[in-house]
Amino acid sequence: MTMSRWTLVILLLSTNILYAQSFADQSFRQPVSIKYPVESTGAGLQMQKMVVDRNDNVLALTNQGLYIIIEDELVPDQRYRPLADRKPVDITLQSETGILYYLYEDHYLSNAYAGKPYGTFESRKYSRIAVNRSGAVLLSGENYCTIVGDNQQYTHMLEEPVRGIKSHGNDFFLLTETGIYRLRGDEIKQVVDDPAITAWTFGDDKLFIANQEGYYALSTGNWKEAEGLRTALPVIPATSLTYHNGKLWGGSAMGMYSTRDFEDYRYYASRRWLQDDLVVDVTLDSEGNAYALTEKGISEVHFRSMTLKDKADHFYERIRKRHLRYGLIGEVRMREPGDYSTMEMTDTDNDGLWTSFYLGSEVFRYAVTGDPEARRNALESFEAFERLISINPLDGFPARTFERKGFRLSGGPDDWRPGVDGEWEWKGTTSSDEFVAYIWVAGIMNQLLDLDREEKRRVARFIDQIMTHIIDNDYYFVDIHGEPTLWGRWNPEYINWYPETIVDRKLGSTTITAGLQLAYTLTGKERYKREMYRLFNDHGYLDNIKIPLEKIGSTPGYIYKGHNMGEGGWNHSDDEMAFLTYWVLYHYALNDELKQAYGKVIADHWAIEKPERNALWNLITRGTAGNIDLESVKWHLREFQLDMVRWDIKNAHRKDLEYLEPNFRAQTTKELLPPGERETARHNANPFKLDAGHGGLRSLAGDEYLLPYWLGRYLNIIVPTSDKK
Asked: Are 703 and 315 in contact (CB under 8 A)?
């Protein structure tokens, strides 16, 4: 074999290895919520039933008439002039055809088949209708029913009230207080003996039955058990069931859920998905989109085909239009829940930290695409970072944020001070969270943004000012009153006061070391390298960095300024600070020996964090230590919801989850819920928190998605479909 052929083999093998650690950005079905509120035409509007006909018209039966979704509005159905002012008693779809039939007080009809289906009867005799595949009609009253078809008519008198009727193929079925009966002409036979049925539906030759304990399925061939009783469901009992293309959907008093395997469930509840959680009926259209009928109207869970890049474009547009405040990411607050027309952007305690996610995403986007707009956006936000220093009179002290005079919102009045020009105010009390943002953005901008000489000088000066302030003030952020801020502390006496079982010792040593390394690389000043080794040799900071995460645990008795530092559980803000810092710590290591040591530290933290399935933590680890949980990256980004409103989310009532005993990490369940089923939160929150939210009055920007997406593209973990071979 020639050398060139060997080279080709090696190239092919290396390409396969690369793609084994990557995935193609193929389209997937992204669930989004579309809401159709109903405008009542009078008092006491009551929702009763919903169907989707063969043309995918979505219709809702109410006590005030028939409604239909037209042009994204739920409105009275006025399409057929002879029926426009009439109120149906019931509606149904013909079995297998999806053709709509109407039941009125003294007749039934359909507009299909040239309008030929029509039948009359004594007024108010029947209240329900079903139509089988052959066109026979089943009508039921309180305790009787009649089959009309083929010039024959069969009437059955019952000993108990009829609670519901359905058709399946050419058979009819009715639900009573004792179970379900099959009707064939003049024959009536009980096929289900269950007095507690709350909902039922047919699918794949099975009859699915919900009761007060869960649901089960019988074969329609022999009426024997096809699926055993399932009790591990999101909510029990179901108020309605429907089945389509291998997926069972259930409505309940607390939302809607679906399953394909009758073991794992997707749960759609809260204002993120539904207008209200009490679901009267559920149905599906031909594309598998799900509709929930509630008293406030219809809510659709629409499955949109999109790629991860499509989702990134969505969040990018939102940020540029809704979330930039003087170059900083602004949290949106609304006067009315979920109503962006009432929104305003506000300052927060950690504007720098939140902005660093967006700025970072633009840096990596530029590194991937070379798009000058991404570079311009990153520099635009960096200018706001520079102003955090220039807006106040303290040398090298970065403010938390700034706002025009008289319009501050976050924190208390003692946290704010007048700006140097008198027209602005700036917020002090700056913490280590903000410090991490400063070194993160400076580090990646210097690496990847193709800075010119002046821009490099600005980035270096920014870090030099901050690090000089810290060192000159004995490793503290010192605020306007001449005292250290509460959480801006890296002094050895403070850091080493903590035992190894409290993460602040490890984290503080990590963040300041990364800052010193970065400052030395950017400025070339020996002072920073000298200080780093002094902290290593005299105060054990490198040993602190190497403390295994498994050592961290409950440590009673360490109270700092009224804060119990050793108890209260795992602090997920510390994870956020650590992983952003790791990138700078690793890539700006002063020698290979340190880089190797840092890689082991990062891998140790990654192993602890694996249950959280965080795409960003995985990708930062991949870009440093090399480890990655590829499936979790794909899962997290695909499952990331489009709606960033901070609705109240509840999951603690769910019966389909495997709960854990209380633990230090506050991991409540064995498996993590998908992002779309839990609260909208930043990366500093516990993803295993089951009940949380802000009443729909706040919205995040989506930079929590953009940063891992573009970092994944930069690392060639996410490969555009056209590039995947």
From this structure: yes
- For the chain, percent helix, then strand, then coil, each to nearest 5? 35, 25, 40
Q: Supply the pLDDT for residue 3.
A: 42
Residue 386 corresponds to which amino acid?
E
Residue 519: partners with Cβ closer than 8 Å, 6 or more residues away: 463, 464, 467, 525, 528
- Say whether 259 sits in a helix, a strand or coil: strand
| pLDDT reported for residue 362 | 98
**Domain 308-723 annotated CATH 1.10.3470:** no
User: Contacts for 178-184 with beta carbons within 8 Å, 24 or more apart?
Assistant: 180/207, 180/209, 183/138, 183/145, 183/147, 183/154, 183/156
Query: Cα-Cα-Cα-Cα dihedral of 556, 562, 565, 568, to 10°?
Result: 80
Q: What is the pTM of this model?
A: 0.94
Task: Determine the distance from the C-alpha atom of residue 184 to the mean position of all C-alpha atoms in its chain, rounded to a whole number.
Answer: 48
Say how many residues make up the chain. 725
With both helix axes pointing from N to C terminus, report the angle between 308-318 and 703-714 in degrees, rounded to the nearest 10: 130
Q: Are 170 and 133 in contact (CB under 8 A)?
A: yes
**DSSP letter at 116?**
-
- 643-667 in b/e burial notation, b at 16+ Cβ within 10 A? bbbbbebbbeebebbeeeeeeebeb
98: left (phi over 0), alpha (psi -120 to 50) or beta: left
Instruction: Say if CB 78 and CB 93 are below 8 A apart.
Output: no
pLDDT along the chain (725 residues), means of 10: 43 44 96 92 86 98 96 96 96 98 98 97 96 97 93 91 97 97 94 98 97 98 96 98 97 98 97 97 98 97 98 98 96 96 95 97 98 98 98 97 95 93 95 98 98 98 98 98 97 98 98 98 98 98 98 95 93 97 98 98 98 98 98 98 97 97 96 97 96 97 97 98 61
Residue 571 is encoded by which pair of tokens?
């602090």
Q: Are 268 and 257 in contact (CB under 8 A)?
A: yes
User: In which element (H, E) is residue 449 found?
Assistant: none
Residue 13 confidence (pLDDT): 41
186-193, Cβ contacts within 8 angstroms, sequence gap of 24 or more: 186/154, 186/156, 188/156, 191/218, 191/223, 192/218, 192/223
Closest CA to 490 of 444, 426, 535: 535
- Residue 561 sits at the vertex; the CA angle it makes with 585 and 533, to the nearest 5 degrees, is 30
Whole-angstrom distance, CA of residue 431 vs CA of residue 496: 18
Q: The tokens of 690 are what?
A: 């089951």
Q: What does the block give as tokens for 123? A: 């007024």
Distance CA 206, CA 222 (A): 10
Q: Residue 260's CB: how many other CB atoms inside 10 A?
A: 12
Specify which residues 208 forms β-bridges with: 201, 217
Whole-number pLDDT of residue 8:
41
Q: How far apart are CA 176 and CA 299, in angstroms?
A: 30
- Of 486, 466, 490, 445, nearest to 349 (Cα)? 486
Helix (H, G, I), strand (E, B) or coil at 355: helix
Q: Measured in whole angstroms, how far is the alpha carbon of residue 36 from the centre of its chain? A: 22
Nearest residue to 188 (alpha-carbon basis) of 218, 152, 146, 220 = 146
